[in-house]
Amino acid sequence: MNSVHYICIVYKNNRFTKQIMGIQERKEREKEDMRRLISEAARKLFLEQGYEKTSIRNIADAIEYSPGTIYLYYKDKNELLFSLHEEAFLKMMQELIKVSGISDPFERLVEMGHQYIKYAIENPELYDLMFIMQAPMETLACRDEIWEDGLKSFGLLKLVIEDCVKAGYFKETNIEIMAMTVWAYMHGLVTIYLKNRMSMFQDNQQLDRIQDSFKLFIKMLKTSL
């Protein structure tokens, strides 16, 4: 085999390999696009109709595909729900972890609160799925599993509060109870807003009220503990 013939063979093989890789990459993109299409339709229906009243056929009809297509990507409705649940928590954790570079623990706690509020307001449907809908917790109970995603985010809050105690911002206290208290306040604050309970204030200053309330809460934390 002369060198020219060899080069031609190598060129053809490389070209064929690139074509195969290109096809595989395209198929992977198409699969991801389909998963995204299914999950977005499911999230919308879960929130509008409720988890129990939403069927795989409903989701398939919404995206104009057959139910069989859904089952190619998700084993059942529970798996689809938990996929949405996990994605939502992953997205929130990515936002909360951004504050990890703040050296002062109290400032880190404050910024974590800002990020939590921001995430809830910018992602109301995801927040509903994560913290308000009952379906994910009922499914966990049926599986006899614990709420791992909740524990991870709660654990992050506990670590920051523990650092605040070590730095002298708070007195020695039950870290878990304090973290629960902070979370309960934050959850209540954003839920009042997301569920339109602030509409009783007809001055279009709901977001200002949230920020003012949070500032007061932080001040109370710093002075009373």
Automatic annotation (TrEMBL):
* UniProt cross-references to Gene3D superfamilies, sorted A to Z: Tetracycline Repressor, domain 2 (1.10.357.10)
The record's section on Pfam families has: TetR_C_33 (PF13305), TetR_N (PF00440)
| Domain of life, source organism | Bacteria
Per its record, what are the GO molecular function terms?
Answer: DNA binding
Q: What is this protein called?
A: Transcriptional regulator, TetR family
Keywords recorded for this protein, A-Z: Coiled coil, DNA-binding, Transcription, Transcription regulation
Name the DNA-binding stretches: 55-74
HTH tetR-type domain sequence ranges: 32-92
Parts forming coiled coils: 13-44
